[in-house]
Amino acid sequence: MDTLSYKTLSATPATIVKNWVVIDATDMVLGRLCSVIAKILRGKNKPDYTPNLDCGDNVIVINADKVILNGDKWEKREYLRYTGYPGGQRSFTPADLMAKSNKKTVKAGRHPLFIKVVKGMLPKTKLGAAQLNNLYVYNGAEHPFADVNPTLIDITKLKF
What we know:
24% of the residues lie in helices and 15% in strands. It has five helices and six strands. The longest helix is centred in the N-terminal third of the chain and has 13 residues, at 30-42.
């Protein structure tokens, strides 16, 4: 007797719709902002979320230089990196990464501070690396994706 009328629907690569969204980072706290960005990149805000597929949206963050950190975290917080050689442990602060984002050697849209923080919130797999490639962060209010008509969303009004 088949009485079950509900079936679990999973997204397939053919049914995934990837939208473009713009988030203004002015006066937002870095960690809270990046946690919302990670959820949007993963697709957890969509009803057809599938954990093993890249069903998230493309995210453009503008005004990244106006993000805030509470307290004295700009100078006291440390991120670590290891080169793989003896004595190769390097430490840097969020202020160092913010200063690095203004250099011409950094690729446009690849803000080191946001990449570091959001990467820690995504899966540590090939899927997480692919989802991180859907993030574009710019220090100013201008971005080169005006032709795809991204929608501006206010993350303070979102409910997850």
